[in-house]
Amino acid sequence: MAKTSKRGSGEETKKTSGQTGDKPLEDISGETLSPSDDASTSAETAAAAEEKSAVNNEPVTVKENELAAERDKYLRLAAEYDNYRKRSIRERELIYGDARADAITKLLPVYDNLERALKTECSDDAFYKGIEMTMTQLTEIMENMGVTPIPSVGEPFDPNRHNAAAAITDPDLGEKTVAEEYQKGFMLGERVLRFSTVVVAN
């Protein structure tokens, strides 16, 4: 009985082995695949992957070009804004300077009248003191605003700051020297608000 059992087991093993070796390959869908079909599928998959990679590279290049264009637009816009800001500051400073110069120029006749009043003899000390205090206050305000008087008497004649109303001969003075001042001139920084009206010697 033991021998019969061994013979039967060997035949069953051989039969099972033969059946497994002869059975064709099947894919998941149940279709039978041969070795040549498997190699063909792999080649097609590799070609498709390569084609997809080439197609995917094109959008990346397009996006990079678009990004570079947008960056260029941003830099141009930033530069234009910076120029606009600087131009606006300069224009604002010019407008402010013109307005301040115009306001001070309109106050100069008041200065002239106060100066003439101080040169006039006055018997009322309180009245004279009041004029003097008003003149001092006006002068301080003008100084705080950057207004300075133009030096004249004893200075060389400067056509950029002096307006010659007359000429005299004076041996005690040098050539083209301001001998007398008719009306005081003023400057706002480097800007002449009013020329000094003067008499020039020699």
Q: What oligomerization state is this entry in?
A: single chain
Low-confidence parts lasting 5 or more residues at pLDDT below 50?
1-22, 24-29
Span of the ends, CA to CA: 160 Å
Biggest pleated-sheet summary? 3 strands, antiparallel
Task: Write up what this structure looks like.
The chain is of the alpha+beta class. It has a domain at 147-202: Head domain of nucleotide exchange factor GrpE (Nucleotide Exchange Factor Grpe, Chain A, domain 2), CATH 2.30.22. It has helices at 2-22, 35-119, 125-144; strands at 25-26, 32-33, 147-149, 162-168, 177-183, 186-188, 191-194, 196-201. The strands form 3 sheets. A 3-stranded antiparallel β-sheet has the order 3-6-7. It has a 3-stranded mixed β-sheet with strand order 4-8-5, with no helix packed on it. A hairpin with a 2-residue loop joins strand 6 and strand 7. Helix 2 (35-119) runs antiparallel to helix 3. The model is unreliable at 1-22 and 24-29 (pLDDT under 50).
Architecture blueprint of SSEs:
Blueprint (H helix, E strand, L loop, with lengths): L1 H21 L2 E2 L5 E2 L1 H85 L5 H20 L2 E3 L12 E7 L8 E7 L2 E3 L2 E4 L1 E6 L1
Parallel strand pairs: 4-8
Antiparallel strand pairs: 1-2, 3-6, 5-8, 6-7
Name the descriptors.
three-stranded antiparallel sheet, 202 residues, disordered N terminus, 17% strand, 3 helices, Nucleotide Exchange Factor Grpe, Chain A, domain 2
